[in-house]
Fold this protein.
Amino acid sequence: MSEPSRHAPSEDDGGETRMDEVGFDRVVERSLSRRSLSRRGLLGGVLALGPIAGVMGTGLLGCGGGQRTRRAEGALRLSFTPVPARGDDRVHVPAGFVDPPAPLVRWGDPIFEGVEEFDHASGGSAEDSDRVFGENCDGMESFVHGGRQLLAVNHEYANPARNLPESGGTPQSAADVLKLQSLQGVSVIEVRETDRGWRVVKESPFNRRITHNTPMAIVGPAAGHPLLRTSADPTGTRTLGTMANCGSGRTPWGTYLTCEENFNGYFGSTEAGAQYDEVVAAGYGRYGIGAKGVGYDYHRWDERFDTSRSPNEPHRAGWVVEIDPTDPNSTPKKHTGLGRFKHENAECALAGDGRVVVYMGDDERGEFLYRFVSNARYVEGQSTEGLLDEGTLYAAQFDDDGLGTWLALTPETTGMELGEMLIFAREAASRVGATTMDRPEWVAVHPSAAEAYCSLTNNTNRGVKPNAGGDATPVDAVNPRERNCYGQVVRWRPDRQDHGSTTFAWDLYVVAGNPAVHDDDNAGSPNVTRDNMFNSPDGMTFDRSGLLWIQTDGSDSDEGDFAGMGNNQMLVGDPETGEIARFMTGPKGCEITGLTWSADGRTLFVGIQHPGGSWPDGEGLPRSSVLAVQRSDGGVIG
Ligand code: FEO
Ligand code: CA
Ligand code: CA
Ligand code: CA
């Protein structure tokens, strides 16, 4: 979520040999070890990486890659004509693509048989709210099971004003709260391509809604911890619901990962001066949990969300949750081993020895980038039990010389007891001195080269004020601009080309900016031009050919610092050349978030979240939707 005005209830807004010691590191040092980056300085870093950026389309697969059908190598390779910036109420794609792309499914569309079509006047019936496609779709992943095409899609938040018009946009009853809770979480849907385009298969046995009330298991090292126990669950191992489901991920064994981001906003207190245990109060401060919440008012109608009555309930959110999309009766698992923070996405890779590596951003100004490395190895066909539970969590340190280290978070390094350390992972990362970042959003792992990329969306507090834990946030090489309003994408290459390495070399793939308005650092890196400029990179996914798809969630004011950028957009970057081209523009007011492919690679599913106007129906309420983007000639995309 980014703009409070539009998203009413939310905020934000070792020792190992280093690879390419000579070429890569020298370039990074030359281009980045300076406080004030010049455009030319940035150019050096970006372009010099070209020759080492990997072999495209070859064997090594990222997490879950085996389930995707291999696409023709280099099918797109920026061969399209980029679209210009736009400020209108529609979606634009390049010539040669079906224009406009058709919505596959919209907020409120029935995903089960016998459910009524969406009613613009009421925002849909309360009764059916857990049987329709939820609101504000976000991260999504594609799965193929028994020849069926399944999609798992997050629903990040619900808009009380649109869903509760008769209550004035604020819950006035437990039923109002239940309607909102039911419109969020996750949808698992079977989809099929028909003569009239892609459709949800309403009779599919795999369709499922997971909401704020779906029973879940709490697993991993912190399960059962006193800080996770409530009167409703004295065991600290069972909870209800997943919330603020932002970005996504997929495990190598074909399950879905949904990431709980701005969970804090759902909690509040009916008792103004409620007192809390010192540790609990400190956590509330660090994670932004206050007495008022951000407008959902759950706490007035659902005791679980009232911190004066259930002070540990907020500790049961802020996790990565694993869902088996092929078993609608399965119980989702909250994995405490992956740490509790405002999770953006969870991008899996395999270390050289088969251990599972999960990269994760914490989207808050001045918070950290994390990874988890399992103790055991993933072996296809063998049990995966415990792989996301037993392991080590790390936070990233980016040094100004272009090198970096994953700092292990353990009771020894942090001085914290293990369970408490995972529940308050931010504090743990602060204690080891991890690098405060410009709001880490999605991480994307290259499909063949040993590289990972993370979008750092923006940080208007950079160089201005500390994070909520009191850590200073000085301008540094990886977060190179004070009051950063445009964002950048950092990439790192693990040493020995092994995601299991604890050290890496890094550089900035792109520094967003506006070369039409600025001629200093705010013009961005040289691969940003008047023709492709954007702000606030957020969603990011690699296609199988090694192109990086970048989605934005920023200002679409099209004025001042953002003049000429138009609406939020999706771009395609070629890491080999540094080139970036604009592929899509969204309707006014939206962010573009969530991206995956059909099994045959001919359809790109793209999420449009919180559009304005009356998109896509042309009248009535605007509706977040998943689009099916196709080439006019039916060819493979990306
Ligand atoms: Fe839900 Fe940080 O985006
Ligand atoms: Ca959002
Ligand atoms: Ca996001
Ligand atoms: Ca964002």
Summary: The radius of gyration is 23 Å. The pocket of calcium ion (ligand 3) is lined by residues 246-247, 344, 441, 538-539, 553, 593 (CB under 6 Å). Residues 1-76 have pLDDT under 50 and may be disordered.
